[in-house]
Structures are given as C-alpha cells and as structure tokens.
Specification:
The radius of gyration is 20 Å and the shape is globular. It has helices at about 15-25, 40-50, 60-70, 80-90, 105-120, 135-145, 170-175, 180-195, 310-325, 335-355, and strands at about 5-10, 30-40, 55-60, 70-75, 95-100, 125, 150-160, 200-210, 240-250, 255-260, 270-275, 280, 285-290, 295-300, 360. It is built from 10 helices and 15 strands. The N and C termini lie far apart (about 45 Å). Helices cover about 35% and strands about 25% of the residues. β9 and β10 form a beta hairpin. α5 packs antiparallel against α10 (about 335-355) and α8 (about 180-195) packs across α10 (about 335-355). The protein folds into 2 domains: about 5-130, Rossmann fold; about 130-310 and about 340-360, Dihydrodipicolinate Reductase, domain 2 (2-Layer Sandwich). The strands form 2 sheets. The protein has a 9-stranded mixed sheet with strand order 14-13-12-11-7-10-9-8-15, covered by helices on one side. Strands 3-2-1-4-5-6 form a 6-stranded parallel sheet, with helices on both faces. Bound molecules: nicotinamide-adenine-dinucleotide. Nicotinamide-adenine-dinucleotide (NAD) binds next to α1.
Length: about 375
C-alpha cells in the first residue's frame, strides 16, 4: 500500500520560504504536497501562493491550521515568532520544521520541545548547514578518531557589507539579535556537531554595533524576496559584529567570529579549523593535516555529490524530516544539540552585556 501524501503548510511567506522551503518540499513531491501558506500580511501570502502554485493562502496562520489538517508545518517567520507559530502548529497536530534559530532564548526552545512531546509530534530545527557532503565527511573523520583529541576549533562567518534589509533581521523586536542568531547559530551548530556535540559550559564574548546604526553595511535585497519590507536604519538595534570564546565540558574550546558588516578585503570570509592531537582539519577544500613518518601530509577526502543549488541544505533537511516522520530515520538535528547551541548563544549575549565570562545556564 502506498504511503499517505503528507500535507505541508508554510507559516511566514517570505524569502527563505520562497527560495528554500518550497523548492525542497517540491523536490519530495512523491510524498508531500504544499497545500497552503500563511503570512501576517495577507497580500504577501497571496503573492507567494500565486508564485508557487499553492492552492490556499491565509492572512492568519491559526485559520490555516484550523482548516487544512496539516501533517507538516514549515515555520519561516522572523525569529521572534518561531515559538508561538511552532506551539500553535504542534497543538494543531502537525510535525514542525522550524527555521533557525529555534527561538530567541533557550527556555523558549525547551518549551517548544516539551510541547512536541505532549503532542506526540516531531520538532526539527532547520540547521541546514549540516546537510552538505563536506560536513558529513568532517563529522565522520572526527568520529573515527583520526584527529586524536580535538581540543580547539575556530569558526568564522564574516560579511563585509551584508546587513539584511528585506525583513526584520535588524530589529530586536523581530529577530531577538543580529548576526549571532542569523549566522552564528549556523557556524556554531556546525562546528559543535562535527566535534561530536561536546557540551558548551562557559562563554566570553563582545558584541558591537558599528555600521547598522550609521546606515552602512547594507546588503542588497536578494532575488526571491517577493515583497520585501521597507528598511529604515533607525530601527537597527541589534549587534553587527560578535566575537566569542566558548569553553567545552571536555576541556576543549571554540573561538567564534561573525559579522554582517566589517572591513575585510573580500565580501565574505568564512571558514572553520579543528586542531587535534593527531591531526588538524581545515575546510574549503576539506583537508586533514597529519603526519606520516617524519613528514606532514595533507589529505583531501573524496566527497560524494550532494544536492546542487544555493539552498541545498534544505533538500537534505526536508528529506531527513520526512523519513523521520515515516519512522525510517532518526532526526539528524536533535533536541540536545539545538539546546546546547541555543544556551551558548544566550550566554554570548549575556557575556557581552555583563563584560565577563558567563556559565551557560542549564535551562
Ligand atoms: N537556513 C538558512 O540558511 C536561512 C536563511 C535565511 C533566513 N532563515 C531564517 O528564516 C526566517 C525568515 O527569514 P526570511 O529571510 O524569510 O525573512 P522574511 O522577512 O523575508 O520573511 C518572513 C515573513 O514572515 C512574515 N511574518 C512576520 N511575522 C509573522 C507572523 N507572526 N505570522 C506569520 N507571518 C509572519 C513576514 O511578513 C514575512 O513575509 C528567519 O528565522 C531566518 O533566521 C534561514
């Protein structure tokens, strides 16, 4: 007997829903169908539905949830609304794929997972950066023990002029934070996952707002932002740079840098590095540096092909989510991992505000 087609609804009909979620769900058209979308702005909901050939659209996601008997909901609102949209979708009986970061503080994330437990539904956070062949290979190599004890990592994602201008990213009220929540959540999640998910226990950080409030460092609105919100730099009240140092329970540590705007020579500077007692790892291309006899050797693992395209990670994450719903795979992004990183992000902000190292709160 063929399995039931899963009915997908999308809450928040903006850029990431349009360029990543819809293509990823449509890639799974054998098993899922996007039947409805909602946006707090009904015109945006209608434009999005027309552009993506979605049969029903709503100006209020609660009405969509009540009417559509959804199996899966993609939550694609600005960060500050992830919590309430996820709780409502779970209460309506849907499994939820929520965009990153899960929420704007760890306690909200704890509450969201507890609600999923109560509803008997899956909640997965879209940590899309993990779903790449190099990331799986890096994690596999670390797990194999080839690097020995991994004691230090560095992770960086800097933009020269990349303040998002099409939504509410620049507003505390809509996003709860700046590049820490937009980019830092990706790179910290990725590096900690590659390291085997050591617990983050203490954090020291500084955050700066040096460009956004001067109307500098802006990004162009990307293709696929169907009806962008007008940008006013006087609303800018989040950080545009963060640097942090994170201590791990296993004695290791991580240095993190992220920015939307900074004077760097290139448009983007991204990268990771892992240092272990028997080998080190750098990325782009993935390279393991180790010793053979008396010589240093650099090894580039052969990687399988992955999904092509700008948001290929969303293809992998939706595939995993559907397989997990069907009971064929475990979720690749787990509660413990998400809450570990979210606690560290909370601590980054607390440390910057208090100008001292802070311990990561347990709940
Ligand atoms: N995984 C990634 O690589 C990636 C990339 C970009 C954005 N994101 C995440 O996706 C989310 C959305 O980002 P975006 O770029 O699409 O922003 P966006 O501003 O383009 O879209 C958000 C949409 O949500 C709507 N909205 C706001 N409040 C709402 C509410 N309460 N109910 C329903 N709709 C509401 C807005 O009107 C807007 O249309 C953010 O959480 C962001 O962190 C993830």
């Amino acid at each position: 007997m063929s399995e039931k087609t899963l009915r997908v609804g999308i809450i928040g009909s903006g850029w990431i829903a349009n360029v990543a979620h819809v293509p990823a769900w449509k890639n799974l058209s054998d098993s899922v169908e996007v039947v409805a979308n909602a946006d707090v702005n009904p015109e945006i909901a209608a434009t999005f539905a027309r552009a993506n050939d979605i049969p029903n659209h709503y100006g209020d996601y609660r009405v969509m949830l009540a009417k559509e008997s959804l199996d899966i909901v993609s939550v694609c609102t600005p960060n500050s609304f992830h919590r309430e949209a996820t709780l409502a979708a779970l209460a309506a009986g849907a499994h939820v794929l929520c965009e990153k970061p899960i929420a704007t503080c760890r306690p909200d994330g704890v509450e969201m997972y507890a609600a999923a437990d109560r509803a008997g539904r899956l909640l997965m956070v879209g940590q899309s950066s993990r779903f790449a062949p190099y990331a799986f290979a890096a994690r596999d190599i670390v797990a194999s023990g080839q690097l020995g004890e991994v004691y230090f990592a560095e992770t960086t994602m800097l933009r020269r002029s990349g303040i998002p201008t099409w939504g509410q990213f620049h507003m505390m009220e809509g996003s709860g934070g700046g590049p820490i929540y937009d980019l830092g959540v990706h790179i910290l999640d990725l590096i900690v996952w590659i390291m085997g998910n050591p617990k983050i226990v203490a954090v020291s950080a500084s955050t700066y707002t040096k460009f956004g409030d001067r109307d500098q460092g802006k990004n162009a609105t990307p293709d696929g932002a169907l009806t962008p919100r007008p940008y006013d730099h006087r609303e800018f009240d989040v950080e545009d740079f963060a640097g942090g140092f994170l201590r791990l329970e296993n004695g290791g540590s991580i240095a993190l840098k992220t920015s939307w705007a900074s004077y760097i020579p290139e448009m983007y500077r991204s990268g990771h590095m892992l240092l272990g007692t028997e080998g080190g790892m750098t990325f782009s291309p993935l390279t393991v540096t180790s010793r053979m006899g008396g010589h240093f050797v650099k090894t580039e693992p052969e990687l399988p092909a992955g999904h092509k395209g700008g948001f290929s990670g969303h293809f992998g994450e939706t595939e995993n989510f559907v397989k997990a719903i069907r009971g064929d795979e475990e979720l690749l992004v787990t509660r413990e991992e998400v809450l570990n990183v979210m606690g560290a992000l909370d601590a980054l902000y607390a440390s910057a505000a208090e100008r001292r190292e802070v311990e990561v709160a347990a709940s």
